[in-house]
Design a protein that fits this description.
Strand order of the largest sheet: 6-5-9-2-1-12-15
CATH architecture of the largest domain: Sandwich
Number of helices: 11
Low-confidence stretches: none
CATH topology of the largest domain: Immunoglobulin-like
Radius of gyration: 23 Å
Number of domains: 2
Mean pLDDT: 97
Shape: globular
Largest sheet: 7 strands, mixed
CATH class of the largest domain: Mainly Beta
Bound molecules: zinc ion
Strand content: 25-35%
Distance between the termini: 60 Å
Number of strands: 23
Length: 458
């Protein structure tokens, strides 16, 4: 099997992480002159990646003459490198990745920055690591901490220090990394890591996240224990979270209070993202499912497990109802929303709102059609099983799974939701615990009348 070692050498200078020196040694590649060798994701949903410098490549014959090109398949920007001659033997890539400072303007966007914190740095692989397209093999991730101060640690979603995995090099980009004087709570293959000490009890929060992971892992029938959570000290006035593979990063800031009660829903939402997926091509096609399942199960799993009360669940559901039904962009189709959602963040929220109420409604219909024998859980778990067999699944697979589970056809309703048409939540949604009545509300920004809904405990 082909092998690739990736060595990360963080360099501490002038009281901070100056850069990370990155070295790839890739075997088993065949590339003609002009064919793409490696690529870097320069920007992700308008978040810039690390600055990279001094990119060089060599093979068995010596230095490779490199050519660079840029492409921008929305919502990403990529840099691609090719060599002026055919590759001979192993490929070596070297460059420096320079972490940036944390964003401080406005609300917090997705955690795709590679940035400094507390004498270290953290970020997702996609913001500082190269991809070598169409390569698979054994990956050897190696850390060289000799240029960091005494006591520095390094971790990624796969674990602390060096790690080996089989797969594509994209795997390395789809996980979070942190290094420096890390603080942590760990147990086996679970860990939560942070750098700046927050003003709340981070260890208690980590215990909550660990418990939640145990519950979700059982629900989604996952036999892997690996899961790591990274905490960011934000400079913005609001914070959020972003999930990658078997990990997520979430933030806190100096202006908003943090407690388990305040963070529990975000922590659950990001964790659910580890499981249900459909193939989101073109971008925005299945975001309703990704965000809808995260929203739905971020409430229903903690509620069913007794981690939150019915009143807390009601609050979460009501907040989402008001947000979606008064969002002035709610009549955009999913495709239209995807095109503008990183400029107009109101449109970015649509997939969450329509996703949760559509899925909750499908759940109610399945339960009625099967006299309570089946639910949305059966659909989601069967799609998850198919996904584990590496089947690429889209909206059709979802509609088929609903049909097979309950012998009902929700494709008309799905088209209405996907196209931005108005639909009311199903009153039997959310395990039938609440009642629903229509109310007139004020549309956000415009103040126009909008049809919204009020939930109450049954
Ligand atoms: Zn999400």
């Amino acid at each position: 099997m082909s092998g690739c070692s990736v060595t990360l050498t963080p360099v501490f200078r002038g009281g901070q992480v100056e850069k990370v020196e990155v070295l790839y040694k890739v075997d088993g590649l065949n590339r003609k002159a002009g064919q793409e060798l490696f690529a870097f994701q320069r920007s992700t949903v308008s978040v810039p990646a690390a600055k990279i410098e001094n990119v060089t490549a060599a093979d068995d014959l010596g230095p490779l003459p490199l050519m660079m090109a840029e492409t921008a398949p929305y919502p990403m920007v990529f840099l691609h490198w090719a060599a002026g001659r055919e590759l001979r033997g192993g490929l070596t890539i070297r460059y420096s990745a320079i972490p940036g400072e944390k964003p401080c303007e406005g609300r917090h966007g997705p955690y795709f920055h590679f940035s400094r914190e507390g004498g270290g740095a953290a970020g997702p692989g996609l913001s500082f690591l190269m991809d070598v397209p169409d390569w698979r093999g054994q990956i050897f991730l190696r850390w060289d901490l000799s240029r960091m101060p005494e006591g520095a640690r390094a971790v990624c979603a796969w674990g602390e220090g060096d790690a080996d995995r089989e797969g594509s090099l994209d795997c390395l980009r789809q996980i979070y990394y942190a290094f420096g004087p890390l603080r942590s709570v760990t147990e086996g293959d679970f860990g939560m890591y942070w750098q700046d000490e927050p003003p709340f009890d981070a260890a208690a929060l980590a215990e909550y996240v660990k418990k939640l992971y145990g519950i979700m892992r059982r629900f989604f029938r996952d036999d892997q224990a690996v899961y790591r959570v990274f905490m960011s000290h934000d400079r913005t006035v609001s914070s959020g979270g972003t999930a990658l593979q078997r990990c997520y990063m979430f933030g806190w800031n100096d202006t908003q209070r943090v407690s388990i009660a305040e963070k529990q829903n975000l922590l659950a939402h990001e964790m659910v993202h580890n499981w249900p997926h459909l193939n989101d091509e073109p971008y925005g096609e299945t975001t309703w499912y990704e965000e809808g399942t995260a929203e739905y199960y971020s409430i229903m799993i903690p509620l069913r497990a007794g981690l939150i009360t019915k009143a807390q669940a009601l609050d979460e559901i009501q907040k989402r109802t008001a947000d979606y039904y008064t969002n002035p962009t709610r009549h955009l189709s999913d495709a239209e929303a995807a095109k503008i959602c990183w400029q107009d963040r109101r449109a970015q929220r649509l997939a969450y709102g329509r996703g949760i109420f559509f899925l909750a409604g499908v759940d109610a219909q399945i339960r009625r059609a099967t006299e309570g024998q089946k639910s949305l859980d059966d659909v989601v778990l069967s799609l998850l099983e198919m996904g584990r067999r590496n089947e690429a699944l889209g909206n059709e697979a979802f509609l088929r799974a609903v049909q097979e589970t309950a012998d009902i056809d929700v494709s008309e309703q799905w088209r209405l939701m996907h196209g931005g048409g108005h639909f009311a939540p199903d009153p039997d949604s959310f395990d039938g615990l609440f009642t629903l009545s229509p109310v007139t509300a004020r549309e956000a920004d415009t103040g126009k009348d909008a049809v919204s809904y009020q939930w109450a405990i049954r």
